[in-house]
Specification:
Oligomer: single chain
Number of helices: 5
Number of strands: 0
Distance between the termini: 10 Å
Strand content: under 5%
Length: 223
């Protein structure tokens, strides 16, 4: 193998090693980005869900005869509509999205019944107050239960997403470090081999000069 061939071989090893490192790094960074994006997205809409729950809870067992009650329901309706739209936009899984839409439908049913109760209080305050507890159990309790279960599952998924993102980051980091170590060892070995080979070639050339030094001009130097 000539020196030129050996240098090409060393260059090829170096290029392949750098290409592997670059590929693993790029793929790893993309995977880290995806997992972190998923974790952040889950944390984001979990916070929105908690806001929805807080707004919904603010409406239970309010005296329908009080003017403030109508305002509380109006504020809650706007907030839940806004936060609900954000959650639907963030959720990617179709089954989860449909489940949440059903919860919003239950909330809409409770809201409609509550508004009807407020209107009833304008003409029959006693009857309106008597319907508060039945309304809570028949309309709000299903919303509260479904929403609480939905939030619990989403919180677990958010925590799992954070844990997955950390695991992926560590895995990618150590993969790149390991690959760097392997490529470095291979290149060092190739350089060592090449240097030894060059040294042997130089020694052979120097050995071939001895007959010339002794006056044998017909001697040919092997290279």
């Amino acid at each position: 193998m000539t020196i030129r061939t050996k240098l090409k071989f060393l260059s090829l090893i170096t290029i392949i090693g750098l290409a592997l490192i670059a590929s693993v790094t790029i793929l790893g960074l993309n995977r880290i980005r995806d997992t972190e994006e998923t974790a952040h997205r889950r944390e984001s809409y979990t916070n929105n869900l908690l806001e929805i729950k807080a707004r919904a809870l603010s409406t239970i067992m309010l005296d329908p005869t009080l003017p403030e009650t109508r305002e509380v329901f109006s504020t809650a309706e706007r907030a839940i509509e806004q936060q609900g739209a954000l959650v639907i936009a963030i959720i990617r899984r179709a089954d989860v999205k449909e489940e949440f839409k059903k919860i919003l439908d239950r909330w809409a049913s409770y809201l409609k019944a509550s508004q009807a109760l407020i209107r009833l209080a304008e003409t029959d305050a006693k009857a309106a107050r008597e319907q508060l507890i039945p309304l809570y159990h028949s309309e709000f309790k299903p919303v509260e239960t479904a929403l609480a279960q939905f939030i619990e599952i989403r919180q677990k998924e958010a925590l799992e997403g954070v844990a997955t993102a950390k695991t992926v980051t560590q895995t990618v980091f150590w993969s790149v470090i390991s690959l760097l170590a392997v490529v470095s060892v291979v290149n060092i070995a190739a350089v060592f081999y090449l240097s030894r080979s060059l040294q042997r070639g130089i020694d052979e050339v120097l050995g071939g000069l001895e007959p010339l030094k002794q006056g044998d001009l017909t001697h040919e130097i092997a290279y």
